[in-house]
Amino acid sequence: MAELVPSVSTDQVAALVELARAGSLRAAASGLHITEQGLRNRLIALEAQLKVSLYHKQRGPRRRSPLTPQGEQFLPHAVAFLESARRLGGVFGGATGPQEVHVAATQYLTLYAMLDSIRRFHRAFPAIRVRLSTRTERDIEDALLRDPDLAFGVAAPYEGGAGLEYRHLFSLDWGLIAPLSHVLLRKRGLTLADLVAVPLIVFERGSTGRQHVLDAFHERGLNPRVDMEATTTGIVVKMVEAGLGVSVVPLMPNGAVTRGVNVGVRKLPDQIRPIHSGILIRRGETPPPAAEAFIRFLQPRSVSEPPT
CA 108, 113, 116, 119 torsion: positive or negative? Predict the structure, then answer.
């Protein structure tokens, strides 16, 4: 006897995915251009088929997600289901008109790696548009599990996200940046211990870069003097140029991080774990051909070469 398969529709599954992405019934209904009651009806029907509660029905303490633990468990499968349905719908019709690849990247990689890669990709594939979103590492991991339209992410993974796979692209070493006249730029055998007494500018909480830097200090029993925090490497560099402190940042091989800025650089080899950056995709999913074509433009060659 054939095994019974739950009768769920793409509309029902899309309602759950949109609720997870938007964060509330009202926002999800607006995103799908239906009423809140219409959204509820789809969710109720989905729960009835799966025989499990997927989202919180009652208002209560502010939650990180509107989904129940069972809903969170089902979410990656729902995203994969919608992607499979989208591909199935294109089997006979084929893609018409311009194609689009939606990619999310961190601010650092957007500024110092993605922009040149996108420009070169558009020259090679003028019919494929890259839609780029800039987000934090954690937000990229979360969005991949909630938004089926997001083809892949480019990031230094904050933590091994369940349901995601990582393809390594390149690793970046760290260096001290300081005002041009700073004494540390002339010190021989520079180590992290030499930075403890000076005002230090670090990345915001929740970033991979901040964790790498502070872990390196703490592993040596050092407590740095953190005076300021910033969200992007570009802002950090400008703060250093203004004489507000020194910082430790990942450096691109082509010198793009400090190009055109009046700061000095000293490398700190083997003192801080390198930043490993790469592609994040949903586990078990193969990116569509247009996305795979763009990924090839993100290989190490496109990072190490100066922009043309």
Answer: negative
Q: Where are the alpha helices (DSSP H) in 90-152?
A: 107-109, 115-124, 137-146
Report in angstroms the alpha-carbon separations of 77 from 17, 21, 24, 25, 145.
10, 15, 20, 20, 9
CB atoms within 10 A of CB 82: 18
User: What's the length of the chain?
Assistant: 308
Task: For each of the domains in the chain, give its residue range(s) and CATH number, in order of start.
Answer: 10-77 (1.10.10.10), 99-171+276-304 (3.40.190.10), 174-273 (3.40.190.10)
Rounded distance, CA 134 to CA 137, Å? 10
pLDDT tens, residue order, the chain (308 aa): 445 667 888 888 888 888 888 888 888 888 888 888 988 999 998 888 888 998 988 765 566 688 899 988 888 888 878 777 766 665 555 544 558 899 999 988 998 889 889 998 888 888 889 999 998 888 898 889 888 889 999 998 755 556 889 999 988 889 999 999 999 999 999 999 999 999 999 998 877 788 899 999 999 999 999 999 998 899 999 999 999 999 999 988 778 899 899 999 999 988 999 988 999 998 888 888 889 889 988 876 534 333 33
Q: Which H helix or E strand runs over 209?
A: helix 208-219
In 3D space, the residue among 16, 10, 7 whose CA is nearest the CA of residue 54 turns out to be: 16
